[in-house]
Every structure is written in structure tokens, then in C-alpha cells.
Amino acid sequence: MSTLLSDASKHLDLAIKHATVSDDLITRLRAPKASLTVSIPLRRDDGSLEVFQGYRVRYDDSRGPAKGGVRFHPGVNLDEVQSLAFWMTFKCAAVNLPFGGGKGGITVNPKTLSPMEVERLSRGYIDAIADFIGPDVDILAPDVYTNARIMSWMMDQYSIIRRQYSPGVVTGKPLAVGGSQGRESATAMGAFFVIQTLMPKFDRRPAETTVAVQGFGNAGSIIAELLAEAGYRVVAVSDSQGGIYSKQGLDIPSIRQHKESTREGVKAVYCAGSVCGIVEHEVITNEQLLALDVDVLIPAALEGQITADNAHQIQAKYVFEVANGPVTFAADQILESRNIYVIPDILVNAGGVTVSYFEWVQNRNGLYWSGAEVHNQLQQKMVEETEAMWCISQQESISVRSAAYVHALNRLGETVEAKGTHRYFRHA
Ligand SMILES: NC(=O)C1=CN([C@@H]2O[C@H](COP(=O)(O)OP(=O)(O)OC[C@H]3O[C@@H](n4cnc5c(N)ncnc54)[C@H](OP(=O)(O)O)[C@@H]3O)[C@@H](O)[C@H]2O)C=CC1
Ligand SMILES: O=C(O)CCC(=O)C(=O)O
User: Which of 348, 370, 397 is the last residue in one of the domains?
Assistant: First the structure.
């Protein structure tokens, strides 16, 4: 049976011919190093008890501690978390961070919980996985439906268990508890640098480029705003309830404001309302958004959005994967055969984990950087690694996705060689 992980790992088959790594390494990288499944009891506000499934996967840690976010979503399952941890492994190597890949999640619809229940669930998750994580072992961060506030609770709970202040076990924290300047906008800012580096190669200028963005959370709303500010015409955005379209372009700051204003009370963790609540725009479905006649399509929600079923309907010429895994392997092949450029998640959304790395470094040193320093270091890394992957794709005549995997595999291979393959593969 094909799983999300087996689908994701098909990209290794395309990359291996162009990378200088052994078959052994590829074989090893087809399975996660360790997966933990836990059950988390939650006392609801009404006094009842519910038990939720949680996961933490350490996919590979040959280049450093595992690193990756925690997702709270009803669709979370072990296969999804393993796939997300797989992508983290290659993302961290692709942009040369000294981390391996990890990921976690809880199968829950957090929008049905009160803020206090979300806090108890977050702390309960850490109680359950505390022995599996650590600042030098496996470091958490935000992902879908988790945020800085939840990271703060998780870091605090870990510190309570360890009986020592441990800011480095979680990144994406609020500034008041050791967060970094620029982490909130880092995923989108990184994607912006990738887009700005590649668009001139396609001879495209912002003013003549239309954009549609699927997903209007941390990553989607900020990339929409950054692109609009830079002069791109963002004509469509969406969230879990649907989307809006305006041929003239949308006023993104006011849409962000509208969405934020739908938080229920100052203590609410999630926005209750939708971008669709803005009445003056044409309402579209998420399916329609993906098929719009735009130049740039930015999936920034969940995986598996562009599949073999709708890949033929995509009209955009460039797809920038801000979400993890939004294009299935089969869809990727179809888009490539239609000469649509797909710029992969492991490059496009790597700005988030890059600033998480900066946060971890700051936590270890106890010395904090200015916003300008974070911004400059992020820009330098994203531009440098984008150029490197673009160069491989041109030299080898392969897609940018395959080039990203080649780049990451070569780095993973160098590390394993340097440590000694006897240790890694347990040779006789
Ligand atoms: N946050 C980060 O630092 C990073 C995130 N990513 C990836 O980016 C993607 C988005 O994450 P992030 O922005 O953090 O998550 P958020 O929780 O902040 O936002 C998720 C957004 O996706 C929308 N959404 C949920 N389900 C659907 C759906 N079925 N169709 C359309 N939209 C939907 C949500 O809608 P609603 O508002 O209605 O709930 C929300 O607007 C994920 O793939 C994540 O793994 C990658 C790297 C780093
Ligand atoms: O910031 C991080 O450590 C990881 C973010 C993440 O989960 C991702 O890049 O998918």
C-alpha cells in the first residue's frame, strides 16, 4: 500500500543518480530512526476525561539533533508525522543546518478546545514525550494549529520536568521566554527570498505577476502580505472554509486584520472566522483557487492538495511549495511534463527552521540578536542555497526538487562518510 512516506521517498529514486552517495544511505533513509506513539489524557473544562493520540518521530539525526514542528490537527497520524519528519531531514540538510529531521503531532481538532484545554493538552504532550526530546536530542517548533503561545507552554513543561530552565528544547517561542526576533515571519520571509531570487531567472517582474495563496495562517497570510508589498498582484487567498478572489488584487493587510479580529476574545488561540467573511469579494472554493489562471500558485496549507486528479487543471506557471508536501509524486510528474516549475517545500519553507536554528543558537549563548541581524542572516542563507540548487538543476538538467534532494543527499553522505559508514550501517 502506498503511504504518504513511500510517496515522498520516491523523490530519492530520482535524485540518487545525480548524487554522490551510496545505495546503503538511500536504503537507510527510507525509514525513520525512531517513532513514538503516546496517548495523552485531557481533563475537559466540563470535568470529563478524553484521551488523544500523539506522536513524535526522529527521522534521522546523523547531522545533529532532530528538529521539527508539532501539529495539532484532526488529520494527524503516524504516516503523516513520519513524512513530515522525512521532509525535515532533507530540508535541514538542503540549507545546511546542523540538524536532523523530526516532527510531532496530536490528532485533535484544537478549535473545539478552550484555551485552557489547549494548554493542558500541550503540557500533557510534553509529559508523554519528555524522555524522547531535549535541546541536544530533538527540538520542537510550531506547525499547523500550534503557535508561539503553545511553544511557551511546552518549553515551560519540559523545564519543570527537567528541573532546569531549558529554552533550547523548543523554538518559535515568544520573545519573553527566549524566542528570536523574526521567527514569526521566518517561514514566509524565507519563501519570499526564494521567490525574489528565482523570478528574475524566469524573467518575471512583480508588477506583471499574479499570485494565488492557499492557506491564510502563519505562513500563507505573511507570504501574501510580503508579495503584495513587493508589488505582486495577489488575486486570491483561502483558508479551511474557502477562498476569495479579486481580479484587481486583494488588500492583504485588511484581510489579515479581518481574520485576526475573528479570534474569540483576547485569550483565544485560534481565529474563528474566515477570509470568506469579507463580503465585497467573489467567494471561491479551495479547488477553484488551485486552478486559477495566475502566474504563481502558493499552496500554504496542508499536504496532498495537488494530486493526479487536479494536476492537469493547474494553470499557474510556477508553484512555490510553502506547505510541506502539497504536491503528490504523481502530480509532480504531471506538472513537470507540462513545463510548470515546482519549487520544493524543502527549499521554499526552510526559512522557518533556519530562524529556529538561530533561536536555538541564541538560547545556547544567552546572547540575543537584533531583528536586522536575523533578517540579514536568513536572507544570506536562503539566497545562497537557492542559487546552489538552481545551479545543480541547470547543470544536471533536473527539476529544482530533484536538485534540492541531490544537494541534501550529498551533505548527508559527507557526514556519514566522515563519521564512518561502519558505525552508521553496522557493517560486519
Ligand atoms: N509555521 C511554520 O513555521 C512552518 C510551516 N510550514 C508548513 O506551512 C503550512 C502551513 O502552516 P502554518 O501557516 O504554520 O499553519 P497555520 O495553522 O498558521 O495556518 C494553517 C492555514 O491553513 C488553513 N487550512 C487548513 N486546512 C485547510 C484546507 N483543507 N484548505 C485550505 N486551507 C486550509 C487554515 O485555515 P483556518 O484559518 O480556517 O483554520 C489556516 O489558514 C503547513 O504545511 C506547515 O507544515 C512549513 C515550515 C514552517
Ligand atoms: O522551525 C522548526 O524547527 C521546524 C518548522 C517545521 O516544522 C517545518 O519546517 O516544517
Answer: 348
Which sign, positive or negative, has the C-alpha torsion 230, 231, 232, 233? positive
- Whether 387 is in a domain gets the answer no
Within a domain: residue 20?
A: no
Is the pTM above the cut of 0.90?
Answer: yes
CA of 214 to the centre of ligand 1 (A): 9
CA angle 258, 264, 269 (to 5 degrees): 95
Is 103 catalytic? The answer is yes
187 is known to lie in a ligand binding site: yes
421 annotated as belonging to a binding site for a ligand: no
- Is 400 within a domain? no
Q: Do 146 and 267 fall within a single domain?
A: no
Q: Is the same domain home to 43 and 140? A: yes
The CATH number assigned to the domain holding 254 equals 3.40.50.720
Ligand nearest to the CA of 323: 1
Residue 200 belongs to domain spanning: 186-348
- Residue whose CA lies nearest to ligand 1 atom number 28: 240
Strands (E) located in 271-321: 282-284, 296-299, 318-320
User: How far is residue 406's CA from residue 15's CA, in Å, rounded to a whole number?
Assistant: 5
When divided into structural domains, the chain yields a total of 2
Low-confidence residues in the chain, pLDDT < 70: 1, 264-267, 427-428
Q: How far apart are the first and last CA of the chain?
A: 32
- Smallest Cα–Cα separation from 250: which of 283, 273, 272? 283
Instruction: Provide the CB-side half-sphere exposure for 417 (13 A, CA).
Output: 9
Lookup: cell for 382 = 536562503
ipTM over 0.85: yes
In this prediction, residue 405 carries a pLDDT of: 98
